[in-house]
C-alpha cells in the first residue's frame, strides 16, 4: 500500500502526521512517501524520514496514494489533487458540514480522528486527549511568560514573594495537565468543572475544587455529561457558578479556561464584569477561543489587554510544542491505521466497527455525517 504524508499548509500548523518512529513501523510492509520538508516545522528532517524507510517526494506527487495521513483537512486545492476512493485520515473537523460535503463530492473516504469514541479500545487513538494534554501544559507556560511576577513563593533576603494563584476553568485533559504543570511551578490552584468526578481528580493533584452544588435532579443528571463530554448546564447552575467564580477570579493572578461542549459554542465562564474585577497584570489564557471563547473579551490569535488583564487567545497551543505534539499525534494515527489494515496488509474498512462508524465522514460519494 502507498501511504503518504503531505506537509501541512494551514497557517500556524506546525505538526506532521507521521514521524520517523511511526514511518519505521509502517515502512517494513508499505511504501511510505513524505513530502519534502513536511517534518521541518516539527524538527524532523527529510534525512530522518529516509533513514526510517520513507521516500521523499515533491508536493506534486504526494497526493497520489491509497492512504493520506494528515493533521488538518486538505484544502480545496489539495482536495482537487486527491483521486476518488483515497482514504484520508486526520483531524478533519467533523462539525464542519461544508467540508464534509466537499470531501464527499471529491469521493474521498474520510476518517476524522476527533470523533474517535471515548472507549478503552480507542484510548491510544484519542487525538483530542493527546493534543489537549500538551495544550494544558503550554497554557501554563505562556501564562507564566506574560505574568510579571513569580509563580512559586520565594523567601529571599530582600523579603518574601507570594505564590501565584491560578484558577483553572474546565478540568478535562487540558485542565488536569494545566493543574499539574502550575503545581510543579509552585502556584496555588483552584479549579471548576461541571462534572462530578472532577472534584476528586482536582484534589488528588493538590488543588482546591470550587464546588457549585447541584440543587435539582435535572442539574445532577446534565452534569454527568455524555460519553465523557460535558453538556450545557441549566442557566440557574451557570449563574451560581459565575457568582462563585467571580469571587475567586478577584483573587487569581492567572486564569486558564478550557471548557468545551462538542459541536457547540464554548460556555461563557469569565464575563467582562469578572475581568473588570481582576487584579491589573493578571493573565487569562482562553483555550476555548476557537469555539467563541470562555471569556467574551478574548480574541482569536491575539493577546489583548482589557481592563488591565492580559487575555491570550491562542487556539492551538499544541502547535507550539510541535515535536512532541507530532510524536504523540503520529502514534495515535499509527494505532488508528492498525484498525483499517488487515493481517495481509490490505486496506479493510469495517463499517460495523464502533470506532470506524464514529469517525467515517464520507465514502464512495456518500455523505455519512452532515
Ligand atoms: P473537553 O475538552 O470537551 O472540555 C474540557 C472540560 O470543560 C471538561 O472537563 C468539561 O466538563 C468542562 N466544562 C464544560 N462546560 C463547563 C462549564 N460550564 N464550567 C466548567 N467546566 C466546564 O473535555 P476533555 O478534556 O476532552 O475530557 C472530558 C473527560 O473525558 C475527562 O474526564 C477525560 O478524562 C475523559 N476522557 C476519557 C477517555 C476515555 O475513557 N477513553 C479519553 C479521553 C478523555
From TrEMBL:
Q: Does the keyword Translocase apply?
A: yes
EC identifiers of the protein? 7.1.1.1
Q: Which GO terms describe its molecular function?
A: NADP binding; oxidoreductase activity; proton-translocating NAD(P)+ transhydrogenase activity
Q: Which reaction does it catalyse?
A: NAD(+) + NADPH + H(+)(in) = NADH + NADP(+) + H(+)(out)
Residues in Alanine dehydrogenase/pyridine nucleotide transhydrogenase N-terminal domain copies: 4-135
One Pfam annotation reads: AlaDh_PNT_N
Q: Which CDD domains match?
A: Rubrum_tdh
BP term (GO), one? NADPH regeneration
**Gene3D superfamilies per record:** NAD(P)-binding Rossmann-like Domain (3.40.50.720)
Q: Which GO terms describe its cellular component?
A: plasma membrane
What are the alphabetically sorted keywords of the record?
NAD, NADP, Nucleotide-binding, Oxidoreductase, Translocase
UniProt keyword Nucleotide-binding present: yes
Where the record annotates domain Alanine dehydrogenase/pyridine nucleotide transhydrogenase NAD(H)-binding, the positions are 144-313
- Report the function annotation for this chain: The transhydrogenation between NADH and NADP is coupled to respiration and ATP hydrolysis and functions as a proton pump across the membrane.
Q: Which family does it belong to?
A: Belongs to the AlaDH/PNT family.
Q: What is this protein called?
A: NAD(P) transhydrogenase subunit alpha part 1
